[in-house]
Design a protein that fits this description.
Elements (H helix, E strand, L loop, with lengths): L2 E5 L2 E7 L3 E2 L4 E11 L11 E8 L7 H16 L5 E7 L3 E9 L5 H9 L9 H14 L6 E8 L10 H13 L3 E7 L5 H11 L3 E4 L5 H13 L1 E12 L3 E7 L4 E3 L2 E10 L3 E10 L6 E15 L6 E13 L10 H24 L3 H25 L13 H26 L7 H17 L2
Parallel strand pairs: 3-17, 5-6, 5-8, 8-9, 9-10
Antiparallel strand pairs: 1-2, 2-4, 4-15, 6-7, 11-14, 11-16, 12-15, 13-14, 16-17
Helix pairs in contact: 1-2, 1-6, 3-4, 4-5, 5-10, 7-8, 7-9, 7-10, 8-9, 9-10
């Protein structure tokens, strides 16, 4: 069959881009969506192992550091007795502000006081903060707990590891040790590529906070998600059938061994959805068949909803009908929406690159083209949707999916268009232009999640 769904605490919906393939083969897609079931009514909240990493470089002066510390102390106030917390600050080096500490009535006040004692320093070494925080989190490791890191910065890395590739590797090592990192970029001068890459590689979220007064809301969102954790160490294996060749895995880190693609998903909270889209090429000269194997999928995870962390699995197989008359034009509407999200993310990042190089009008045109394409795909998908099985994991209606993409692209198109009229050469340096670039990057990361 070309689609299946199932699961307990984590729900898996898997489908092919095309129900039928021509005898000449061709390219199609394997799409998997995984979502945490809403287990809030029966969840046994696991203890937390939270690391808070705060930039204290000189640029964090004024309300930035004030609001950052207030957001961090507010999170400490919300932590439960028995939860673990570590706090690290960094400028051109890292300092352990709070070593791994179990929250209780006797420790909560001292943790808050330690955070409030953070003072501004010099340059920005993001890798120093990450490495030090990871050491503290691992030192405090609790096999029954949920490990999470929040990284806050307002600047660009100018000490330690400074390139996207190097920081992505650090984030990948943390992911492999069971920790995801959500990054929070403050104001408009942080390096959005680095902060987004760290979050993406570790299966965390990236937030852009234009006004430091919004930091408490972001910390609360992340903490609410952490409290609602229902699964950890989730991993999806996609075993391709003989004659099926992987072409591209969109947006997600993965490992490949022969015909097997492994995607680490990490931690899930209730109702949280994560997806993977794989383009495959099916060999030519297929025999006519009602059941041509394409892929077998297996989702494995530790169930955190009960507090026992038992290992659970969900698996199934995807197959296509092979017919001489089959067409590759009719793409499953939900696969089309996910592919469109990836292409929209690419358009946003490409427009950012053009804009930052002073080509504001070219950036606007790139976005106009993508908006037109999203509209065309949305029209076809909405027509086909009634005949397609709706994913049990869908976090949003199909129409809303496309509307979110169009809203993001049109907003960026308008902003870059105004900048082009005002003078392309100066536009990237203006606050409005910088803010739009960082909004685009945050939206791109979200579309690929």
């Amino acid at each position: 069959m070309s689609q299946f769904s199932g699961g307990k605490t984590l729900l898996l919906d898997a489908r092919l881009g095309h129900k039928a393939l021509p005898t000449t083969g061709g390219e199609t897609f394997v799409f998997a969506s995984v979502a945490g079931r809403d287990e809030s009514s029966r969840a046994v909240a696991a203890p937390l192992n939270l690391g808070i990493v705060i930039d204290r470089s000189g640029s964090m002066k004024g309300q930035r550091i004030v609001n950052a510390l207030a957001a961090a102390t507010g999170t400490i106030d919300r932590m439960r007795d028995g939860d673990l917390v570590s706090v690290v600050s960094f400028d051109d080096s890292a300092q352990v502000v709070v070593p791994p500490t179990r929250i209780s009535s006797s420790t909560r006040g001292s943790v808050v006081s330690a955070i409030q004692s953070i003072r501004l320093g010099g340059d920005t070494c993001i890798s120093c903060g990450l490495d030090t925080a990871m050491n503290e989190l691992m030192r405090a490791g609790d096999s029954r707990g949920i490990t999470k890191m929040l990284l806050l910065s307002d600047g660009a890395a100018n000490q330690g590891v400074r390139d996207v590739s190097g920081l992505r590797q650090i984030a990948g090592r943390m992911r492999d040790r069971g920790c995801n990192i959500s990054t929070i970029g403050v104001d408009v001068d942080f390096d959005e590529k680095i902060m987004s890459a760290i979050a993406t590689e570790s299966n965390g979220r990236h937030h852009f906070v234009a006004n430091a007064s919004e930091l408490t809301n972001v910390f609360n969102q992340e903490f609410d998600s952490l409290l609602a954790t229902v699964a950890r160490e989730a991993e999806l294996e996609i075993e391709l059938a003989p004659g099926v060749e992987p072409v591209q895995v969109f947006d997600r880190s993965h490992r490949r061994s022969g015909q097997r693609i492994t995607v680490p998903f990490g931690t899930f909270s209730a109702k949280q959805e994560k997806t993977v889209l794989l383009k495959v090429r099916v060999s030519e000269s297929l025999a006519r068949s009602d059941n041509q194997p394409i892929a077998r999928l297996r989702l494995a995870y530790e169930d955190a909803a009960t507090g026992r962390f038992g290992r659970e699995e969900t698996q199934g197989a995807l197959a296509a009908r092979v017919s001489r008359s089959a067409s590759l034009d009719d793409l499953d509407p939900f696969v089309a929406a996910r592919l469109s999200r990836s292409l929209t993310a690419t358009a946003l990042t490409e427009a950012n690159s053009l804009f930052e190089r002073g080509f504001a009008e070219e950036a606007r045109k790139r976005l106009t083209s993508q908006a037109d394409e999203v509209g065309r795909v949305a029209s076809r998908a909405k027509t086909a949707a009634p005949a397609a099985a709706k994913p049990v994991t869908a976090a949003r209606p199909l129409a809303d999916d496309f509307e979110q993409q169009l809203d993001a692209v049109r907003s960026a198109e308008s902003s870059f268009g105004s900048a082009a009229v005002g003078g392309a050469a100066a536009a990237p340096a203006k606050r409005e232009g910088k803010a739009q670039v960082r909004t685009n990057q945050a939206n791109a990361q979200s579309f690929g999640f």
